[in-house]
Amino acid sequence: MLGQHYHPWSISSVADDTSPSAWMHSLINVFSWRQAGTGQLHEMDIIFCRLSAISRMLLHPYFVFDGPDCPQLKRGKDVVGSTFPRLLVQRFQELLTAFSFNWHMAPGEADAELANLQSYGLIEAVVTPYNDALLFGATCIIRSGTPYSTRYEDVLVYSSKDIENVVSLELGDLYLILLMSSVDAEVIGGAAWTLPVGWQKYGFGRSLLRAAAALQFAEFMSFVSKWRDSVCEVLRTDPRQFLGCRHYELARIIVEERIEFPDPAVLAMYLLPLTSWSDNGRPPITVVTSRQPDLTSLVEFCSQYLDWPPDVIQSRLVDARAGAAVRALLQVSSAIINTSTPHHHPPYPAARQCQRRETAT
């Protein structure tokens, strides 16, 4: 069932991008940028509560931060201004270490890194509010229905298999939706958002993805020219009536305004993202495990950066102590189960073919 409610207690390992990026993004919008950069106010209090709640769950969390070479564009939009105060990131990482949660900084975008971690069998699900992870090849995404809450009792699960089986959207179809939405909405009058649902039946997204995976760049650009002509013809005529109406104006804009559609840079960003595995790199981890939180380090952190008095620290560490017991149980469970690293493979066939082509050249 697409977007079904799901209880996370049975997950053995998940990676969480929600904490490093979406958590900080939500917090610096709730509080001011001026305050959020200090790492001493409410944002760290909320992060502490969330990590404390995660520590009591029967799962192995793993956190990934966006890296220094994270793309400056997302779906055609400038995201340079979305960087977070350095001190807030530093305090976040220090708190993760005190909770003994493993984390690393991706070389590029965290969603791409998370998709690879899942593809290689190192995690079972990606916790993120962003749909981009599906485009990078993630097969299971968990989203919280209450982004500002510190509770994780009710979440939504999105599966690539369900997306394909229930609404008949394959990866190529999702790429087409992405490429349409990356075009300036003001230029196309917002019409792009209503087209792709019908377009999937014409197969434009799937044929584009196959070409991107199989052709060299010059051949691909030649294919794109003919592909774009076919797209405009279908917009003008809708020969099989999949779109429900004809879109003369959009076809005219694509031709006369010389819109870069599809944008090869956007497509390449998702087909060949920068990850720890790029250029024959090594994976950042071989297994996701759990360790007990360092209660001494947590006391020092709360005293120094949260400015909590001793009595508050004692009361707030009750959940962390419970989390220590849960982590100990998970350590015993991990020791009993013989874990082996699965065969490594790129997250989806298109990326595999692209990587083979790059190796050959």
Tags for this model:
361 residues, alpha/beta, seven-stranded mixed beta sheet, elongated, disordered C terminus
Description of the molecule:
- The protein has 361 residues and is α/β, with parallel strands linked by helices.
- 51% of the residues lie in helices and 9% in strands.
- The chain has 18 helices and 9 strands.
- A 7-stranded mixed beta sheet has the order 1-9-8-7-2-3-6, sandwiched between helices. Strands 4-5 form a two-stranded antiparallel ribbon.
- The protein starts with a strand and ends with a helix.
> How does the major sheet shape up?
7 strands, mixed
The backbone outline, from C-alpha atoms, is: elongated
- The chain-level structural class is alpha/beta
Listing every helix as H and every strand as E from the N terminus to the C terminus, the arrangement reads EEHHHEEEHEHEHEEHHHHHHHHHHHH
Which regions have little confidence, pLDDT < 50, spanning 5+ residues? 1-12, 28-40, 338-344, 356-361
Mean pLDDT: 77
**For the largest beta sheet, what order do the strands appear in spatially?**
1-9-8-7-2-3-6
Give the oligomeric state.
single chain
**Computed Rg:** 23 Å
C-alpha termini separation? 43 Å
Strand content: 5-15%
Helix tally equals 18
Helix content: 40-55%
**How many DSSP-defined strands?**
9
